[in-house]
Amino acid sequence: MKKKILVIDDDQKLNLLLSEYLAKFGFTVITSTHPREGLKTLKKEMPDLVILDLMLPDMDGFEVCKAIRRDFTVPIIMLTARGEVSDRIVGLELGADDYLPKPFEPRELVARIQTILRRSQTDMKREFKRFGELTIDFTRRQVTIGEQPVDLTTAEFEILKIFVKRPGMALSRQQILDLLWDIKWDVENRSIDVLVSRLRQKLGDDPKNPRYIKTIWGAGYMFMEEG
Predict the structure, then answer these.
(1) pTM, whole model, 2 decimals?
(2) Rounded-to-integer distance, Cα 114 and Cα 24, Å
(3) Containing domain of residue 167, as a range?
(4) What share of the chain has pLDDT > 70, as a percent?
């Protein structure tokens, strides 16, 4: 079955180009030029991934991202023409899984889409890990604490997976970046710190007295095996 991608961008020319280009790689593309229309389309079509522009009429991409994250865990790639580090950090804090500054190479966008979707696919074999009250179901991509489900974005789940599969190992930000993305980000932009902060908040993990993720000053982060 073809993967469905929703593009929310008020640039009709770009939407057309993306539709034609992504179709060559087997994707079905739906486009919306207005954010409110895009949110309605999201609920109706239930796409596998959303490409979201930052500069939109009436609602900016940050507001749309926040609205999507209230109800959906669909992966989001945010596009920003301004390219400011602060914009990217805010996008990540609101739940975007990746970002790409404009102008961009279409093939790079395809690579990022493929990377995110590949990591979203389930394995045939159920795989669990438990750390105290924390349970991770890798096959269904579900996380619970006790009996309470924890709603994680794709990026948050992937970084948690990196940690729990390497308990007791101190990982630098660059090591996490290399494991998290096929395409490297600029390590200076605090991307990893933002993701870890969001993950800690959702796990109810206090960085000053951590149960799961410990900050190793000067080195990075470590998942505490004893949980």
Answers:
(1) 0.62
(2) 13
(3) 128-223
(4) 89
